Amino acid sequence: MIAGGARALYRSVEGAEDEESSGALAMVERGVKDTDVIIGITASGRTPFVLGALAKAKSLGAKTILLTCNPSSVVAPKAFGAAAGTAASTENVDLTITLAVGPEILTGSTRLKAGTATKVALNIISTGAMVALGKVRANLMIDLHASSSKLRDRATRVVSELMNCDYDAARQQLEAGGWDLRGVLGKL
Fold first, then answer.
1. Can you give the pLDDT at residue 145?
2. What is the domain-level CATH number for residue 112?
3. What is the DSSP letter of 59?
4. Dihedral, 126, 128, 131, 132 alpha carbons, nearest 10
5. Terminus-to-terminus CA distance in the chain, angstroms?
6. How far is CA 35 from the centre of its chain?
């Protein structure tokens, strides 16, 4: 979810991140529940939309993570909006990940160091989640839908490697199994 909705992915929606209530509403509209983990991303550590979303997610029972590039935003016990009396505070966050990237080369341009560091951190988190969910075997992603020639080729190479057989034998296994990679690998 992004402040300003899907439109903000391709055109700036100025001011959308300034409303805690919009972040909270996004959690309700998405149906966040106690089995979810919500990661709020804010380079500054104080974006109202993100903090409102985290507060609402926490109240709905979700686990919450704040990902920020500003170490000073988490030093005070109630650093998030506490001075303004807002609902967002460190009590709404189960885990804070602080990426200490230092000041941007161009002040205000968070797409440089903060954006790059955030992308790397999210890659690490999503890779760990895929491993924990059993979607990986060794260093291979095994939970893929072979819905294109590229993905069928990848699935074939995965089966070939994990079943220690040649490419053609792996492809025959997948064709016989309806291109269900997990099903074919379940035979191991």
1. 92
2. 3.40.50.10490
3. H
4. -110
5. 39
6. 15
Calculate mean pLDDT across residues 13-27: 92
Tokens of 117: 């560091």
* CA–CA separation, 133 and 130 (whole Å): 5
**Max intra-chain CA distance, the chain:** 65
Residue 83 shares a structural domain with residue 171: no
Retrieve residue 179's tokens.
Answer: 């291109």
More confident residue, 26 or 81: 26
Single pTM value for the model: 0.77
Which two tokens mark 162? 């994990």
60-85 pLDDT per residue, tens: 999 999 999 887 766 433 443 334 43
Same domain, 78 and 146: no
- The answer to whether residues 110 and 146 belong to one domain is no
Neighbours of 184 (CB within 10 A): 22
Among 36, 86, 34, 89, CA closest to 66: 89
Share of the chain residues as helix, strand and coil, in percent rounded to the nearest 5: 45, 10, 45
With a pLDDT cut of 70, the percent of the chain lying above it is 89
